[in-house]
Write a structure and sequence with these properties.
- By secondary structure, the chain is mainly alpha-helical.
- It contains 14 helices and 2 strands, in the order ααααααββαααααααα.
- Helices cover 80% and strands 2% of the residues.
- α2 packs antiparallel against α3, α10 runs antiparallel to α12 and α13 packs across α14.
- The radius of gyration is 28 Å and the shape is globular.
Length: 368
C-alpha cells in the first residue's frame, strides 16, 4: 500500500511538472513571437523618426533653432533604439549559442541604455531651453551663440550617456536555461546602487525639473507677464518672432509637455522592476522559474519602456503642426519623384513594334 501511495504521488507530481513545463514553454513561445513581432512597430518608428530628422535638418530655419536641434538629437536616440530592436528581432528568428546571445543581450542593453539616457537628458535640456527663451531671453547675446552652446551640451549628453550605460554590460545578459531571453542577471550591492542612481538621476530629477520649468512657463503665460520691449530689442526674440509665432510657441510647449508625460508614464515600469529586483536580490531567472506571471509583467515593463521610441515620433507628428506639415510635404515630394521616375522608366523601356509592312517613311521624314 505504501509503495502504491508513493507511486501515485510521484505520478501526480510528474503530471503537475509536465503541465507546468508545458505552460512555461507556451509562455516562452509567446514571448519569442512577441520579440519577433516587435520588429514591425520598430520599423515604423525608424521610418517616422528618419522622416522627422530629415525634415528638421533639411530646413534652414529649423537647423538653426536650438529647440529643434535638441528635438533632432532626441529623435536620433529613438532611431538608435528602433534599430537595435529590429536587429534583436531578426536575431531572435535564428538559433544561436548561449555565448552569442549573451554578447548580443549585453550590447543591446548598453545601446538601449545610451539612447534612453541621451533621450532623457535631451528632454531635460529642451525644457531648460524653452524656459530660458521665454523667461530669460537676454541670457544669450545671439542665436548663433546659443546654438553653439547647445551643440556643446549635446556632445556632453552623449559622453554622460555612454559612461552611464556601460554598467549595463555587467548587470545584464542572457538568462540561463533559455535561448532567446535577456534580463538583469547580476545581484549584489553594486546593482542596487546603480539602479538607485539610475532612478534618481535619470528619472526622478529630470521629471521634477521638467515639471517645475513647464509649470513656470505656464504661469508666466497665464499671468500675462510679458515685456514688449523684449520682443522689439532682443535678437533672440526677433528670431523667434520670425520663425515661430506666439501661438506656435505655445503649441510647441504643449507638444513637448505631452512627449515628456508619455516618457514619464512609459518609463517608470522598467525602473520600478529593475529597482525591485536589485533590492530584493531576486534574479530575473528566478522570477522566470518560480512565477511566470511576474516574468511576463517584467517583459511588458521592458517593452513599454522601449516603446517610447515608437510613441515619440507619433506624438511629434500629431501635435507639432510644423513637423506634421513638413513631413507631409517631404512624403509628397518623394512620392511625386518616385512615380515620375517610374513613368519615365516605363516610357523609355516601351518600344512599339513598328513593322515595315504597315509603316513607311516618306521623303519629308514623316511616318505614314
Amino acid at each position: 500500500m505504501t509503495i502504491s501511495h508513493h507511486s501515485t504521488f510521484n505520478q501526480t507530481t510528474e503530471g503537475l511538472d509536465n503541465d507546468f513545463n508545458t505552460y512555461n514553454e507556451t509562455v516562452f513561445r509567446f514571448l519569442r513571437i512577441a520579440q519577433i513581432s516587435f520588429a514591425f512597430p520598430a520599423l515604423i518608428s525608424l521610418i517616422l523618426n528618419v522622416l522627422i530628422i530629415h525634415s528638421i535638418f533639411s530646413s534652414k530655419e529649423w537647423s538653426k533653432s536650438p529647440t529643434y536641434y535638441l528635438i533632432g538629437n532626441m529623435v536620433t536616440c529613438d532611431i538608435m533604439t528602433a534599430s537595435l530592436f529590429i536587429a534583436f528581432s531578426i536575431v531572435s528568428c535564428f538559433t544561436i549559442s548561449f555565448f552569442s546571445l549573451d554578447v548580443i543581450c549585453r550590447a543591446l542593453s548598453v545601446g538601449t541604455g545610451i539612447s534612453y539616457m541621451a533621450s532623457v537628458l535631451s528632454l531635460t535640456i529642451i525644457s531648460i531651453d524653452r524656459y530660458l527663451s521665454i523667461l530669460k531671453p537676454f541670457l544669450f547675446p545671439s542665436r548663433n551663440k546659443k546654438l553653439s552652446v547647445i551643440k556643446s551640451v549635446i556632445v556632453l549628453i552623449w559622453i554622460i550617456s555612454i559612461m552611464g550605460a556601460l554598467p549595463f554590460a555587467i548587470v545584464t545578459g542572457a538568462i540561463s536555461g533559455t535561448d532567446s531571453t535577456c534580463g538583469i542577471i547580476y545581484r549584489g550591492v553594486i546593482s542596487v546602487i546603480y539602479f538607485l542612481l539610475l532612478t534618481l538621476l535619470l528619472y526622478l530629477i529630470p521629471i521634477i525639473t521638467m515639471v517645475v520649468l513647464y509649470v513656470k512657463i505656464y504661469h508666466y503665460w497665464i499671468k500675462g507677464i510679458r515685456r514688449r520691449s523684449l520682443a522689439k530689442n532682443t535678437t533672440s526674440n526677433s528670431f523667434q518672432g520670425k520663425f515661430l509665432t506666439q501661438m506656435e510657441r505655445k503649441a510647441l510647449i504643449k507638444t513637448l509637455v505631452i512627449v515628456t508625460a508619455a516618457f514619464a508614464i512609459m518609463s517608470w515600469p522598467f525602473l520600478v522592476m529593475a529597482l525591485a529586483l536589485a533590492i530584493s536580490g531576486v534574479g530575473i531567472e528566478d522570477v522566470e522559474k518560480k512565477n511566470t506571471f511576474l516574468f511576463v509583467l517584467c517583459t511588458i515593463a521592458v517593452s513599454c519602456s522601449a516603446s517610447t521610441s515608437i510613441a515619440n515620433p507619433m506624438l511629434l507628428m500629431k501635435f507639432d503642426k510644423n513637423i506634421h506639415r513638413r513631413c507631409i510635404n517631404i512624403l509628397a515630394q518623394f512620392t511625386n519623384t518616385f512615380f515620375s521616375h517610374n513613368r519615365r522608366k516605363i516610357f523609355v523601356s516601351y518600344k512599339p513594334n513598328l513593322s515595315p509592312n504597315t509603316l513607311s517613311v516618306g521623303k519629308d521624314g514623316l511616318i505614314g
